[in-house]
């Protein structure tokens, strides 16, 4: 009797949602290895983003941390001190960019570190050099977007929504703009987090396969877009100075330096991690590639949930339109 040919066992994981041993396709945000406990990863990341909105104190971060850092870097009180000239404005832009690192309108920048986890290891010097390449693309994307916006601000003058402090229905034009901008960026980051889990398609998959460096440019562009809705008081001071100058070159350079300042702390942190722990981190993710997907997903989901809830839900509670849980020090 003829023997029946055995068919290969079918994989229990669908294409695009593969387990550690069989990636169907990979891209910048999704390496083809979905975490086995993707629901748990997503839930924990989302819960962390929500918890951060509950305890976040804008007054402490903006004034206690931001103002003190800016004052220290500039050597004088930054808030309320007139910006005397172009060079003073550029110094102010860079210093307040660093000072705004941990503000609610910038903290999501740290999610950009997540896709870089598990990069190939080499010598410490080689890892540092390799780390500079994606950071340079990130910085380029941020500077391009922020510089274009700075030029627009200088040309448009003080008639833009960020100068509107009227409280129509409890919201100024400035806050409405912040809600829209950060809400959209938050939704996009949430989607990228789900893509990293293999739940939805990676929107940059085709682009990342053809141009591997392009996704970091896109990430940088998102960081640069933070300035479009940014209500940070020290940034508003720079915003007004650029608008009143009517000098698009000055506005472009000042806003570009602000973005560079925004990512400086994150960049230094990433370089330290790459230099000191890069080889160990690479071995850890190489043993189970789904760990890299989990880290990427957790970073984007936590940042996305935080942005949406903080800027589009908690603000409604601040205006007493709805109830939202907030720690006593956060009110």
How would you characterize this protein structure?
This protein is mainly α and 331 residues long. Helix content is 62%, strand content 0%. It is built from 10 helices and no strands. The chain is globular and about 55 Å long. Mean pLDDT is 84; it is low at 1-24.
In whole angstroms, the N-to-C terminal distance is 81 Å
Query: How many individual β-strands?
Result: 0
Strand content: under 5%
Largest sheet: none
| Helical percentage | 55-70%
Overall outline = globular
Average predicted confidence as pLDDT: 84
Order of helices and strands: HHHHHHHHHH
The number of helical runs is 10
The stretches of 5 or more residues where confidence is low (pLDDT under 50) are: 1-24
Compute the CA-based radius of gyration: 22 Å
The assigned structural class equals: mainly alpha
Topology readout:
Elements: H1 38-55, H2 58-74, H3 86-99, H4 124-156, H5 173-196, H6 205-210, H7 214-225, H8 233-245, H9 248-287, H10 290-318
Helix pairs in contact: 1-10, 2-3, 3-8, 3-9, 4-7, 4-8, 4-9, 5-10, 8-9
